[in-house]
Amino acid sequence: MTHSGPKLKPKTPEEQYAQDLEERQARRTNRILVAAQQVCQRRNDYPHSHISGLQGITRKRVLKFQEKSKEGGRVDTGEEGKRKKVKVKS
Q1: Domain boundaries, the chain
Q2: Taking all residues of the chain, what is their mean pLDDT, rounded to a whole number?
């Protein structure tokens, strides 16, 4: 550390442990808050899509969805959802 501030008296192991625990908990809550914010943002961005929930969202899926909404309707990626229309025999 190059930062030379006021010299702190060395902490006892108990104090050190308490501080570490506090920092860990703060980091954890921060992580959870960030994740929650991202989910809320996603819900606002795509209110009616399968993307909005907590399920594993991939960048590819987001991009595909954005592409779809730009073109207005389904975009044929050619790799999935190949369904043939079956004529109903009347």
Answers
A1: 13-71
A2: 68
